[in-house]
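[step 3/7] fold_predict: job queued, chain A
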Amino acid sequence: MTHVLDPADPVEKTALLTAALRAAESRRDDRLYTDPYAAALTGDAGPRLLAEIRDATFPPDRLRNLPSTPDYNAIRTRFFDDLLQEAVRDREMTQLVVAPAGMDSRAYRLPWPDRLRYFEVDRPAVLAFKAERLRGVAPRVDRVTVAVDLTADDWEDRLLASGYDPGSPSTWLLEGLLYYLPEPDVHRLLERVAACCAPGSRIAADLVNAAALTLPAMRPLLDVFARWGCPWLFGSDEPEALFGRHGFEVAAVQPGEPGAGFGRWPDPVPDRAVRDVRRVFFVRGRRR
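[step 4/7] structure written:
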């Protein structure tokens, strides 16, 4: 049976877009990483979706005033690559959860310790498509797929049934997710993740600030995602407080700041005290 992602499904569009961005990055001479599997994971729709983002971001008739999605995605991928690799150097760290997994191929392209179990959580159609596209490719880790939507009432039960141990330290990556959730769902998700995490477990995520959802200059990019059926719904100016409310002690860094630029962020980095400017945050920290 051939598995084809629904090009009209908004969740599947974002997964294919990310794969297309990673494939394009991997072709650059100055690439921040190499993802040899991204091209296979873009599907038929990925290049078209990326072209729409490029057209909105780099209009031919005026200067760019949107964040550069290709540069942002490259920095984000490399930032989380490095963070996850550092996290699993701790010999007590035996579990990694990527939720949602999308078309991510870190289980295949990065080295991992033998003690690690690598859980990929995503919708059945997404995981089936990935399995077909990577047929014959062996992961470099004990990879466990958990085929469930993160909006389901029982995703924690499904994760536990797959062998996840909530009593042992874990690392969680929530990449490219929080933008798309209504605020109550963001709090509910973080509450549920926290309930699955032993003290000392690590978490990483990305999110935008509130102004990024409303500034007129952001409208061309926001309109693309809204047209696809996956509008940006949530942003926070205080990511530390957001995660702290749910039992995580975190720090947030903006792309372009030390350790989060890799020489590729093309724009000024506004001080946190400046209001009414767009921001993106990379968040990382631990369960208290």
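[step 5/7] annotate
Residues 255 and 261 are 5 Å apart (CA to CA).
The mean pLDDT is 96.
exit 0
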